[in-house]
Design brief:
Blueprint: H1 7-16, E1 22-25, H2 32-38, E2 45-54, E3 59-65, H3 75-79, E4 84-86, H4 89-96, E5 116-121, E6 130-132, E7 139-143, H5 145-155, E8 160-162
Parallel strand pairs: 2-6, 3-5, 5-8
Antiparallel strand pairs: 1-7, 2-3, 2-4, 6-7
């Protein structure tokens, strides 16, 4: 891989792919509670993103609406993996080149070795707009689900659509 993507290069990549997206700046968001305060006025289904690792070492990025509860005990059966836990901050930095608190499907553009499997909540894909951080937690980028799918296809990360 060359240089890891940055917020600016990811937004430029979305534009290059012809994906309509709008980005909103805000103070840093580290928790859903922070987000609820700063997301006012930003459209779309705001998503949480979990960087996970299973017992066999496979890494996963799971995206779903912030209100969705993800049960790590039942998730492996739904996604076809072994026992699952959160990936370490060091593994996140080494694999996706982002910091904790900035996990996003956009970071899969940095996974040129295709080490991470993307899982998207099937229900949210019917929403008109989805909202994710653009590699940093000081902004939110909003795009339609088909734009997210086009982005993931371009990065070589065909997502698993799963009912979470």
């Amino acid at each position: 891989m060359t240089q890891p993507h940055t917020r600016q290069s990811i937004l430029a990549y979305l534009q290059e792919l012809g994906i309509k997206a709008e980005t909103f700046d805000h103070p840093p968001i580290f928790t859903v509670a922070d987000g609820e305060e700063h997301w006012r006025g930003i459209p779309g289904t705001h998503c949480k993103n979990l960087f996970l690792k299973d017992a066999k070492g496979q890494m996963w990025l799971v995206s779903c609406p912030i209100a969705r509860k993800v049960d790590l005990k039942t998730l492996p059966d739904r996604i076809g993996s072994a026992r699952i836990s959160f990936g370490s901050a060091d593994r996140l930095r080494a694999t996706l080149f982002i910091e904790p608190g900035s996990v996003t499907p956009f970071a899969l553009a940095n996974d040129s070795d295709k080490k991470v499997i993307c899982v998207l909540d099937k229900a949210m894909m019917g929403d008109p707009l989805l909202a994710f951080h653009p590699l940093e937690n000081t902004a939110t980028t909003v795009l339609p689900p088909d734009g997210l799918l086009a982005f993931l296809k371009a990065t070589g990360h065909a997502p698993k659509l799963v009912s979470l």
